[in-house]
Amino acid sequence: MKAPEPTPGWSANAPRGEDRRQRDRAQRQHGPARQTHAVRSPMRYVVDVYGRRLRDVVNRIVVRYSMVPDDDVFDPAVFDWTATLQANWQTIHEEAMAILSQRHDIPPLGDISTDHQRLDHRRSWRTFFLWGYGYRMDRNCVHAPKTAALVDSIPGLISALFSVHEPGTHLPRHRGVTKGMITCHLGLKIPVDADQCVIAVNDKPYRWKPGEFFVFDDTQYHEVWNDTDEDRIILLLHINRPMRAPGAWLQQAFFYLIRHSPFVQEALRNMESWTDRFSRNARALGRSG
């Protein structure tokens, strides 16, 4: 199995380089500050400012002690467990579609993590968490027991969720926090017009395929489009990057701080209220859990 090749002949209207840089500068200078200034607590401010500085130091150490290459996009076969999930992707697909029968009880990601609101102004990116930030969502897992059992066996699992991009979803160019985490997408339902449903990593476009993994380092700039009239549905996983000591110890300490940060604790509280709503309506509809 090889790493995915960039999509040939891609024709989506991505912003030109200089326009994109100007937009990114404007977002850094105005967008996030305007959104969060009114509600940002002193603790959140400290974590945001000093956490970002610590992140750069940690990322340099992660690269030094990583047991996998410092690549933008990975061959999924580097991770042994991907073969098992690919072999069971149709079972995962069936459980995802059953959950999506309660679409309006599945929150936009921005309703879970307010720090993601700037990425999804249309509120068209819906997420159903089985694991989040290292915490298992037991009451959600009962609605997808076979998928939950499969992801429970993944070494170093951080998050596992069904990720739905509704028609017209566009996530602007952005990047993640830490190289200590690797992002894995298992295609479940991919629009027929796959050329208009694209993820670009460092401006190289790739397409998802049903039953196949796309694995990448999300600290690289990436941008996502679904310019079709269908949903794009994947199983999205975050895993710990395999590392040697002593780098692995620093990685564990860094994730401990993230898990207990105001950002994650707020997200967990938001997730709990949506879990209550989903479970209550599932019982009313006669579904298990």
Jot down its keywords.
289 residues, alpha+beta, 10 helices, 11 strands, 21% strand
Describe this entry's structure for a reader.
The structure is a single chain. The chain is α+β, with helices and mostly antiparallel strands and 289 residues long. Helix content is 39%, strand content 21%. It has a 7-stranded antiparallel β-sheet.
Helix and strand layout, with pairings?
Blueprint: H1 17-29, H2 31-36, H3 42-65, E1 73-74, H4 82-87, H5 89-99, H6 109-112, E2 125-132, E3 135-136, H7 138-141, H8 145-152, E4 157-165, E5 170-174, E6 181-189, E7 197-201, E8 204-207, E9 213-216, E10 222-226, E11 232-240, H9 247-259, H10 262-284
Average pLDDT figure: 83
Judged by helices, strands and strand pairing, the structural class is alpha+beta
Helix content estimate: 25-40%
Separation of the first and last Cα atoms: 38 Å
Strand order of the largest sheet: 1-9-6-11-4-2-3
Order of helices and strands: HHHEHHHEEHHEEEEEEEEHH
The strand count comes to 11
In percent, how much strand structure appears in the residues? 15-25%
Shape category: globular
| Contiguous runs where pLDDT drops below 50 for at least 5 residues | 11-40
Helix tally equals 10
- Major sheet: size, sense and barrel closure? 7 strands, antiparallel
Q: Tell me the radius of gyration.
A: 19 Å
